[in-house]
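Appendix C reproduces, verbatim, an entry submitted by the partner laboratory led by Prof. M.T., so that reviewers can inspect both the input and the predicted structure.
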Amino acid sequence: MQDEPSSPELTLALRDQVFEEIERVADLAASYARSAGEAAFRGDETTMLVHLKQLRLCCLSMIKTYKDFLQGG
């Protein structure tokens, strides 16, 4: 039977998962930001607004993910 991971090991593993998720969502946010910029350049307001909303949700998600980690849940 294996020993249960110690609290520091568990915290580090969770931190790694949180940072990987933030990195994944940040990549999406970068794509949405670029698409919003391209839509703005074309004068396509509808598409620009869609991408800005997606970008906003990505930012909120990253903040929530990190805050939840800091609060331990």
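The mean pLDDT is 93. Additional entries are available on request from the coordinating office.
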